[in-house]
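Table S2 (continued). Query chain:
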Amino acid sequence: MRPDTPAENVDHAAEAARLERTAGLYPEDAEALLLRAAAHLELSGDRPAASTLYDRLLSSATDLDHPHLVRALKASNLWEYGHEAEARAIIEGIRVAAPREPGPWVIIAEALESHDELEAAHETFTEAARLLLTDAEEPPYATHPLLFGRHRVRRMLGAPHDDWDTLADSLNTAPVPLDELHDPNRVWSLGSDNPAELAAEISRLRAELGTFREALSRPFPVAVLHWPADELSELVADYPELAAEYPSYEAHLATVEESLRELAASGTQNLGIVAGTVPSYEAFAASEASSPGDPTLLPQYATTLAARGRAVAWPPQRGAGCWCGSGRVYGECHGTTAATH
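Corresponding output:
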């Protein structure tokens, strides 16, 4: 499916089948591909088939990268077609496990919210925020939905603003403030006979739709390509025409970090790094009927890896190891201000 395909023109069942076939060709990326296939099945209305895919992943002999995310998606899907008790049990299990990634928390909290369990949704969002954001200097992009969701539920509960609500407001890039987007009384303005009220509501809805479109247009991170030292040596030795792109390994590492910082400074969110390998790159070049020595293939290769779920989020969370593989903490390695100079 092309990224610019209008949603109403997507054959979700066919897209799910295509992704399942692709997962067979790239078993190392099966988790990310099958999760996308399950999402298309849910959109097609075939929720039992989506549950089958989630079960297939959870019963796989291969360790999953994000098992709690798969369980959360399964719980949300089950609840939508009548399996409330099983969904609740899975949700409680995830809360007890306290995963250190935001995705599962957002999904189970939104599942509770969508079934009018507002107090439980608020507790879940808040629990996740305490776990993931208490020591965070700057909330990573992936945690923004936690703060936005918590803000939304608190507005519906009539709770006063707190520090995390203020932080959510500061992270909101829509032209309409979160307080307006999450106003419980907005629904009443849709039935108003006042043209001014209706016009204001249309403006808010457009802003909200713009935020959704921005998120949907980038289902995977904007990724920068990183070659580990041995892979870069092999790449340049086999394809010397790429030497101009990579004058040295140290320069390559500095360029990766600098590129990501420039993207972040320009307002680009959801950034990541993908690690390249020579065999994978050669296979990609062959699929494009092009030479691996063509430097214009490099950004396309990075995008393809990101689409297959191979991207690691940047910047790493506080205390995490550096993306370069040095073994040092990111803040003491490429995370220092001097790293790009």
